[in-house]
Amino acid sequence: MSQLLRASSPQLKRENGLGKLDYPTAVQFLCMHAACLLVIWSGASVVAVLTCLALYVGRMFAITAGFHRLFAHRTYSTGRLFQFVLAFTGTTAYQKGPLWWSAHHRSHHLHTDTAHDLHSPLTRGLWRSHIGWFLARDSRATDRVLVSNLTKYRDLRWLDRFYVLPPVLLAAATFLLGTLLQRYAPGLGTSGGQMLVWGFFISTVLLYHGTFTVNSLAHLFGRRRFATDDNSRNNLLVALLTLGEGWHNNHHYYPASERQGFYWWEVDISHYTLRLLSWFGVVWDLHTPPAKLYL
Ligand SMILES: [Zn+2]
Ligand SMILES: [Zn+2]
Question: How much is the pTM?
């Protein structure tokens, strides 16, 4: 712990380049938040709020089951089509591309809660672990060596390069849907602008903060079942917000497992969904925790 505390010194923060903003990312991130204020003008409707929730859950699944459990950790197998579906849907969450995301996450597992961990709340503080690292200049590059088993896929490379395109397409789709509903189902009380605000801006901002709680809160608050070398925690609230990623101490102890809730009471919706998909042959070879964990 003393090593961790030393690592939070101002000198080390300067050495790590923290405080230097990656301006393009920071401006996009800020604009996404500011755009949520358009809700004052657009108002709300049941269909718009439900669309917001559906796009939160669907894209959170693509981030957790796709970016995290498939791309970063290879905890199960699937075909090229479903892999692309997960990669594309995950990229609409506007958290950069699958290669960038996976490389940074693999780096997190290599250096968890040390001075080299870009988003440790112990060494960097809560703000930087939650948001600051994402906006920092030193997190802009992708370490391709860390994702050498993913760079062979041309579609993943393409999505990573043009990561802005899928979110823009989703934004356009929500606007188009709202415009069509306004015209053909006026009783729903929605519009293009309203669906854009709820379905894209608010939903995506909620997704940012939902996903980022794994980096911030799940390394600070919760129980530690396993005495790992880091400060990872099992946190029910984070697990509910992220469809199962809150069992983070379990995950750091045995990251090769597809399921992160190791017991039936550890709610892991991504795991249930992947199990369901395995019955239909969409995914297979789901890696389980070793039997010795349950002795
Ligand atoms: Zn972690
Ligand atoms: Zn992980």
Answer: 0.92
Q: Which ligand approaches the C-alpha of residue 235 most closely?
A: 1
Q: Minimum-distance ligand to the CA of 256? A: 2
For residue 152, how far is its CA from the centre of ligand 1 (angstroms)? 26
Predicted confidence at residue 295, as pLDDT, reads 73
pLDDT digits (tens, 9 = 90+) for 28-68: 999 999 999 999 999 999 999 999 999 999 999 999 999 99
**Is the CB of residue 251 less than 8 Å from the CB of residue 266?**
no
Q: What is the CA radius of gyration of the chain?
A: 19
Ligand of minimum distance to the alpha carbon of 230: 1
From the CA of 223, how far away is ligand 1's center (Å)? 14
Contacts 24+ apart (CB under 8 A), 140-143: 140/22, 140/25, 142/99, 142/100, 142/103, 142/104, 143/103, 143/107
Considering the chain, what is the average pLDDT of its residues?
93
Q: What is the DSSP string of 95-117?
A: S--HHHHHHHHHHHHHSTTSTT-
Integer Cα distance of 177 and 180 in angstroms: 5
- For the CA of 119, the nearest ligand: 1
Q: Point out the ligand nearest to the CA of residue 219.
A: 1
CA of 233 from ligand 1 middle (Å) equals 9
CA 19 to ligand 1 centroid distance, Å: 22
The more confidently predicted of residues 20 and 188 is 188
